[in-house]
Design brief:
Length: 277
């Protein structure tokens, strides 16, 4: 009975996803079905491509299922005791060659267009370096001096109302809205992966190598991602938070961070001078 209930739940989930395209939520929600709401052009294209493939594969599965049923009903030993001796049918052989080619072309055109848009990084207005550690993220802003942030997951006992479990972090990557952001991704120890579904971003963070991706967020807010590469015992506990703010707020934030860095440098210099004396 439990098995049948499980099948029923999967069936409901499949039908909900099928007939609603990709059900989009503004942020991760409990028992949510579908994809997170996109806030970049790339993410919208990914969801549109996903929906296209969903309809194509559904049509193929239903067509093959119909053929199997016809074969089982019309050509079983009882209904068809004398089997046909036909070995070739030119029309059918042409059709089952041409139709798959047409389907692949229909899939290939938006696929290559989307791949190009993801891989080719446009001229960036801001660069952020994301570094994966075991097991947290670090963010550096090479365009803004020595700003460096360490981001750790907020433990369950410290969660505030509205903060999603396993996704909320104590510090976020802060970026301005409507700005092309280039993200340089690397790792300090093992392979991680930088993935933020609302941006349509996912790229490996590999020690000793710099990979890059990009996004241009169109709405302010907090957006969540996670490490998407098995990287150790706490792989599931290194979330990614991206805080998208207005350009004015971003300028204020960078000034505050630079001032904090300057104060820290002054304190270090004072301590070093005291020790030398």
């Amino acid at each position: 009975m439990r098995f049948l209930n499980g099948i029923g739940l999967y069936a409901v989930a499949f039908m909900a996803t099928l007939f609603s395209g990709a059900v989009a939520h503004a942020e991760p929600v409990e028992r949510g079905i579908g994809l997170q709401a996109p806030v970049t052009e790339v993410a919208r294209d990914i969801i549109a491509f996903h929906n296209l493939l969903l309809w194509i594969i559904t049509a193929i599965v239903l067509f093959v299922l119909a053929l199997l049923i016809i074969v089982m009903v019309r050509f079983n030993a009882r209904a068809n005791p004398v089997p046909s001796k036909t070995t070739h049918n030119t029309l059918i052989e042409i059709a089952w060659t041409v139709i798959p080619v047409i389907i692949l072309v229909i899939i290939a055109i938006p696929s290559f267009r989307l791949l190009y848009k993801q891989v080719v990084v446009p001229e960036a207005e801001l660069t952020v370096k994301a570094i994966g550690y075991q097991w947290y993220w670090g963010y550096e802003y090479p365009d803004h001096g020595d700003i460096s942030i360490i981001s750790n997951m907020i433990e369950d006992a410290d969660l505030q109302p509205g903060q999603p479990r396993l996704l909320a972090a104590d510090e976020a990557m802060v970026v301005p809205v409507d700005t092309t952001v280039r993200v340089i991704v690397t790792a300090a120890d093992v392979i991680h992966a930088f993935a933020v579904p609302p941006f349509g971003v996912k790229i490996d963070a590999i020690p000793g190598r710099l990979n890059e991706t990009w996004f241009r967020a169109e709405k302010t807010g907090v957006y969540y991602g996670q490490c998407s590469e098995l990287c150790g015992t706490r792989h599931a506990f290194m979330p990614i938070n991206v805080l998208v703010v207005t350009k004015e707020e971003f300028e204020e934030w960078t000034q505050q961070q630079q001032a904090a860095v300057s104060n820290d440098n002054v304190k270090v210099a004072e301590i070093a001078g005291t020790e030398l004396r």
